[in-house]
Amino acid sequence: MKHILIKSLYCLLISITAFAAGISAETADQQYRYAEQLFESGDYQAARREYKRLLFYQSDTEFGDIADYRIAQSYYYQNEATRAEALFRKFSAIYPNSPLRSQSQLMLGQLHFDAGEYSLARTTLFELLHTSEAPKVVAAARYLRGWCYIHTTDWNKAISELRQVDISQINTLQNKKAHELADTLLEETPLPSKSPQLAGWLSTVVPGSGQFYAGKVKEGMIAAALNGTFIYLVADAIRDRRYVDSAGLFFIGWQFYWGNRTNARQFATEYNKHREQKLIEMLQRQADRSLP
Q1: pTM, whole model, 2 decimals?
Q2: Which of 39, 95, 117, 276 fits a disulfide with 47 by CB distance 3.0 to 4.6 angstroms?
Q3: What CATH number is given to the structural domain containing 68?
C-alpha cells in the first residue's frame, strides 16, 4: 500500500513538472499578452486566472507588477471591493518602485469614494498628491477630490480642486470636464436655501407660516387650520368655564402645535437637501455627457 502511494505521488510530481515545463516553454510575453487580451475584452475572471498562472510559473517575470495590478483591478470591476482594496494596499508594499504604485493608491481613493467614504477618500488622495509626480495621476486625484467635495456640498473647495485639474493636465478630456464642472458650480452656487431655524420660529409665532416659508403650501394650510381650530376650542372652553375640557384640548392641541414647529424645520432642511441633490445630479449628467 505504501509502495503504491509513493508511486502515485511520484507520478503526480512528474505530471506537474511536465505541465510546468510546458508553461515555461510559452514565453512570458505571450502569456502576458493573452491575459491582457482577456482583460481588455472584459472577461475579468479568465484574465485573472491567466495573470495568476503567469505569476505562478514565471515568478520573476518583468510583468509581475502589471499582473498583480490587473488582478486587483479585475476584482474591482467585478464589484468585489473588499478583495480589491486588500490587493491595492498590498501592492504598494510589494512594488514600492513600480510606476503603477500611484495608480494603486488612486484606486484606493476610488474605492473609498464608491463606498461614500468621502473624507477617507480625500485623505488618501491628498497623500497621493504629495507622493506622485505623474501628471495624469495627479490630475485624476484632483478630479476625484473635487467630486468628494461635491458630494459633501462643499462647493468652494470643489471648485478649487477642479480648477487645479485645469492646471495639472493640459488638453485632456478630464481637463475639459473639470473646467466645465467648475464653471457650472461657480454659476449655480451658492444655492438658494431655507433656514430651518427661521422656519421653526415662524411656525412658533404663527403656526403654518414656517411651512409656507419652506415652500410647503398645503402643509402650511393644514397646520394653520388645525392649530387655529384648537386655539378656538380652548378659548371657547375657557369662556364657558369648562376648565377640564380646556386643559384636555390644550394638551392635545399642544402636540399639534409643537409638531407644526418641528415639521417646519424638517421641511426647510429637506428643501435644502433637495436643491443640493438636484445640483449633484445635474453635475453627474454633465460629466457623463463629456465622456466619449
Answers
A1: 0.79
A2: 39
A3: 1.25.40.10
